[in-house]
Amino acid sequence: MNNKPIETERLLLRELWPSDDKDMFELDSNSEVHKYLGKNPVIHIEQSQELISMFRNQYQANGIGRWATIEKETGLFIGWSGLKFITEPENNRVDYHDIGYRFMPQFWGKGYATEATKACLKYAFEEINLTEIIGAANEENNASRRVFEKCGLQFVEQFMWQDLTCDWLSISKEYWLEINK
Ligand SMILES: CC(C)(COP(=O)(O)OP(=O)(O)OC[C@H]1O[C@@H](n2cnc3c(N)ncnc32)[C@H](O)[C@@H]1OP(=O)(O)O)[C@@H](O)C(=O)NCCC(=O)NCCS
After folding, report:
1. Helix (H) or strand (E) holding 180
2. Helix (H, G, I), strand (E, B) or coil at 117
3. Domain ranges within the chain, ordered by starting residue
4. Rounded to the nearest whole angstrom, what is the distance from the C-alpha of residue 81 to the centroid of ligand 1?
5. Which residues pair with 154 in a beta bridge?
6. Residues 6+ apart with CB under 8 A from 177
7. Nearest residue (CA) to ligand 1, atom 25
8. What's the gap in Å between 144 CA and the centre of ligand 1?
9. Strand 76-86 with 96-103, pairing
10. Global confidence as pTM
């Protein structure tokens, strides 16, 4: 990422810092948050510190990454949203850009994931000129599927992740430009 935070109407998207570890631990130790993520919440803060470090490596290596998502009005840490360059094979694809989000339950249902994701897509297509973004979610994760669709991602197919059936969605830069004329 460029080091400059991205602002939307209600949110600030900025780099995750090592000092976000307590907030990230609160997020990822919550079993409700992990309901559709393989039901494997973290149990030690070191796991959250490691995740932040992995996210920060992506800023250096790929100029993108999952971003801390902050509620502007309160300054509170909501969770993270943003891009990830996937280098491990998933659904027979490798080296592609994924979009995702993970927020604390008290911030759900306010349109924040949609607002953040729209800003991330704009960044991806306009600022760093990516050509396609993938979204993937457990088929039962209706909130996530809805966010993807509200942002213009389209269902492609289902695939297996571990033992879970997941939906694979995609949006091309061409289509994004078309719906954002
Ligand atoms: C997925 C998640 C980020 C959504 O965040 P959010 O800020 O609440 O999303 P938004 O408010 O922008 O949009 C949610 C949409 O899903 C809908 N929705 C929510 N729960 C739903 C459900 N159980 N069934 C169907 N639709 C649902 C909402 O009504 C809304 O759609 P609408 O605007 O048409 O009414 C949040 O639920 C979360 O952090 N979940 C835990 C982590 C996770 O599963 N991440 C996704 C992994 S792929």
Report:
1. none
2. helix
3. 6-179
4. 13
5. 170
6. 125
7. 142
8. 5
9. antiparallel
10. 0.97
One pLDDT digit (tens) per residue for the chain, 181 residues: 556 789 999 999 999 999 999 999 999 999 999 999 999 999 999 999 999 999 999 999 988 999 999 999 999 999 999 999 999 999 999 999 999 999 999 999 999 999 999 999 999 999 999 999 999 999 999 999 999 999 999 999 999 998 999 999 999 999 999 999 9
* Gap from CA of 61 to ligand 1 centroid (Å): 30
If one looks up domain 6-179 in CATH, what number appears?
Answer: 3.40.630.30
- For residues 133 and 121, the answer to whether their CB atoms sit within 8 Å is yes
Cα distance between residue 2 and residue 5, in whole Å? 8
Return the sign of the alpha-carbon dihedral for residues 104, 106, 111, 115: negative
Ligand 1 atom with least separation from CA of 32: 41
Q: How many whole angstroms from 109 Cα to the centroid of ligand 1?
A: 6
Contact 46, 22 (CB under 8 A): no
